[in-house]
Fold this sequence. Notes:
Distance between the termini: 51 Å
Number of helices: 14
CATH topology of the largest domain: Spore Coat Polysaccharide Biosynthesis Protein SpsA, Chain A
Largest sheet: 9 strands, mixed
Low-confidence stretches: 42-46, 51-59, 71-75, 99-108, 387-403
Structural class: alpha/beta
Shape: elongated
Helix content: 25-40%
Strand content: 15-25%
CATH class of the largest domain: Alpha Beta
Amino acid sequence: MSEHDGRCSRRYGDIDSAWEACMAEPACAGVVRDNGLRCRGGEANRKRALGKNRGRRSGDTLDFELRGGGVAQGSTTAWICGSRLRALTPVAGTTYRRHNNVKLNNASAAQGYVFIALGPCALPSYNCSFLQEARNAIRALREVDSARPIAVLSDGGVPTQALLQATEADLITVLDSYSGAARSAGTASDLRVRKLLAYGQSPFESTVFFDGDTFARTSNVAMLFAALEHFELAAAFECCRIDYGYSALNFDKDDFFRGWEMQTGVMAYRRTPRLAAFWQATIDEFSEREAYWMSRSSGEQGAATLALSRVDVRFMPLPPVFNARPYTMMHYVNVFGVPVYHGKDLWTRMDLQGRYEPNADAIISQRMLRDWNGTAEVLRTEFVSGRTSPLLMKSPWMTPVRG
């Protein structure tokens, strides 16, 4: 991927040069001036940096960027072509079909998958890394479940038809930025809070949400919808959030339970009044302690975790394999150790070889290493034949062993 995800190719050193380039590009709705990017690339970028102000060298810092439909967003200075902006900017709260840029008559389907795309893509091909990532995830998901539609929630930073083509999604829902009450403009502009505002705007009654860096491997992903037959929200927990002020620690020493939190990168949720209250409680918590949560690696997840204690939403903890990452599946041992062991017949002090062992920790260590080594064998079986491998629950090793 090119420097700054291709943004340098759409940047200029002065407004005249940028505006001239914008008018020559039909997909451009205007020009935004910000703090600039340092762009390498020799003479071409040097000419852009100089622009028409030949008497003033500005090095390779390019302050003016061409934008599409999301040009008016944020706290930047913008020059806008009104007619193009109106044509390119999607309508908030509207859902669009793939290949047909019209409002759906029945936008609220029963079940579907959702991804989120926030912010602009400056590449003419709309091939920015975050869109490539989403496309890869959507392709993998469609291979294991082609029956349900896939939507991308967008803040309008990428024109709707371009986003449909770049991600290969079935639907695009344009977010209403005022849906949900963030308590300050700073909070509302934060990427994490914008995600919190987005979650509740799914076009589906029952939603399975995926971050763009996920990869669905088997048709078991559809089990997430089955969870919603009984619960309103399902997610795994992970360990652990980091306090940027103590980045040498792999946990948040001052926060509740060292930063153990709900992982929002994979969630299943159902549209109910209680769930709407949960999202609002999460936004309220983040907004009320904005500085605190902004100083942490995943403050929006911490706010969501605390919101679970304040709203009577019906929550189901997911098995970690539905959001398989080191932080959901094993990292908690590094942070908490093993405070409590639960196993049969420990009182007999007999080890796995049937010998008397007075040290309880020695027996616990034997048992846990046996179990974790068995899990490693399950993973080898799971991946040996790729995506057609048997279900974990059908692996021979998974015969229950008590103790």
